Amino acid sequence: MIRLFLALLLFALAPVTVRAGTIEAYQVVQHETGLPLVASVYRPSGPPPAGGWPVLYLLHGYNGDERSWPDLGGIGPTLDRLIGTGAIPPLLVVMPRAGNSWYVNSRDVGGPGDIETAIVDDLRQGIEAAYPVRHDRGGRAIAGLSMGGFGALHLAFAHPDLFAAVASLSGAIWHNVPPEDMDKSPDALALIQDSAYFHRLDATTVTSGIVLLNDGPHFNGAFGTPFDPRRFNRLNVFTLLEEQRARGRTLPAIYLASGDDDGLQLWRGTLALFETLRADGIPSQLRITDGAHDWSLWRQSIEGALIFIAGNLTSPP
What we know:
Elements: H1 2-13, E1 22-29, E2 36-43, E3 55-59, H2 68-72, H3 75-84, E4 92-96, H4 115-130, E5 140-145, H5 147-158, E6 165-169, H6 186-189, H7 229-235, H8 237-246, E7 253-259, H9 267-279, E8 285-289, H10 295-312
Parallel strand pairs: 3-4, 3-5, 5-6, 6-7, 7-8
Antiparallel strand pairs: 1-2, 2-4
Helix pairs in contact: 3-10, 5-8
């Protein structure tokens, strides 16, 4: 009996053997421009389930590309471990190269291009034709960091019929430009961070002020050149949220995370969106953790996001 107990104990303590997935290059042609859209794709090991793998679209930040998450974020080993331990199911993860597009359509104003259409139409349809994946909303999610956090929310709120869950890590989130500031010059809109950027009107809550963007070259013409505040407002996550709410649309499950030492102070926008969601009666999850605006935080926070996403995927129809 003792020998049997010891044998079972050793078996329980033995390390879990994790079969590594593969990360491969993928490319699809954008129908509107004829240009290629490239991506890195994590493919889990083993055969897909009968209904196909769920799909996560994982977006990079400003100045990133399709190799940011694999090379800097260590996403492959993280997925291998979480899948191997049963924390999440096997899923396909698609990481597109979007440039500094802010994941919005901007070809009509000479911006980086129509990356929103390229992702939700061309890339999605290409992935669903090339891989054994699910084609339904319940098997599809989107997430991203910084600019990609904004992009994930923008795409999820603009196309709530496509995604079951969305996660924003250190998302570059700002309130809409107020009506009284609409006709100011771009220079006047370049607000100073330690004053007008965030004004705390009510000492009882940190999000009662307005979180305003600091216009600059980082927008890369995505909202017009010069920066067009009306276009920004129309494409902003706060506008899309209220539009879909007014239409009675079901939004994806929402996960927001940011570091408390974010040098860009992007936790402010995350808190503002969380409070707006709560005021609207829309469930969401918020995580403010110890960390800055860097990969050490995102490598950690992506795990919670993946587990949240997995918990909000549904069974195949």
